[in-house]
Amino acid sequence: MNEITITEAEIAAVVEGIKRLGPDVQGYGNVDPAWSRSPAVLVIDCVLSLNRKYDGFVVPRLDAFVENHPDICTVNELADFMSSFPTPHEFMQQELNYNYEVRANTLQSVVEFVCKIVGETPDVPEEETLRQWAINAKPEEYQTLNIHGFGIAGYQYLRMLFGADTTKPDVHIIRYVSKLLGRNISAIEALHLLEASSERLGLSVRDVDTYIWQISARPEQNNFDKNLVLLDPDVAAAFPNEQAVNEALRFVLKVLEDSKHLTIHHE
């Protein structure tokens, strides 16, 4: 992977953007029930969520799988269960109601990868082994897996699900950071910028990631962001705080209201 260079000015811009999200960011990653599922379900979650709507598509399938198979908790149990089907595609069709052979093969490959991690420390509890892997793994290592359809966002989400304090540079994160910088950025740039900026603020990267994802992917569920507007960097620089923005907008509204009552005389 090419060397990524991020500047102090870019980090500062993202820091200011995160500050504008408000105090609710702190601890926000803990509210998502995704983090508390069993390892088997976390692996399914990671693959099903690739380019799909999470609440409408992924969650119902995860809930149904848990209800139908409460005894399948470890990744080895999941691997054994999947092997009872003629193909991964048939498993995905029957158990996850998802008719997508390519994605089924991706799931099979990710399950095999996770089973290999667990197999390296058989005397250590599975969840602890996966937590240690997630913490110590590096984003760039996704390339060594060579799993079709499983890029850096999927790999990073897998790390997050197993306990790493990092971010997944999906479309929501990339769009958010790009907006703050006023230019299009790559996934790896978004990742490093969000990590560096969160560290500067003493925040959990996972908290920041989850908060950004929440206001982007679930706007209808949040009262706090119904009127959220992300200012361009040059506009944001003109205002020291939220109060200044509101005062300026109130002035504009007053000017617009007064203009309605003006009588224009033509010669």
The mean pLDDT is 88
Given helix and strand content, the structural type is mainly alpha
Silhouette:
elongated
Number of helices: 14
Largest sheet: none
In total, the number of domains comes to: 1
Topology:
Elements (H helix, E strand, L loop, with lengths): L7 H14 L17 H10 L5 H15 L6 H9 L4 H9 L4 H19 L6 H11 L5 H4 L6 H10 L9 H11 L5 H14 L4 H13 L15 H4 L5 H19 L7
Helix pairs in contact: 1-11, 2-3, 2-4, 2-6, 2-9, 4-6, 5-6, 7-9, 10-11
Give an overview in words.
By secondary structure, the chain is mainly α. It is elongated, with a radius of gyration of 23 Å. It contains 14 helices and no strands. It is 61% helix and 0% strand. It has one domain. The protein has helices spanning 8-21, 39-48, 54-68, 75-83, 88-96, 101-119, 126-136, 142-145, 152-161, 171-181, 187-200, 205-217, 233-236, 242-260. The mean pLDDT is 88.
Can you tag this structure with a few keywords?
14 helices, single chain, mainly alpha, 0% strand, 267 residues
Summarize the structure.
With 267 residues, the protein is an all-alpha fold. It is built from 14 helices and no strands.
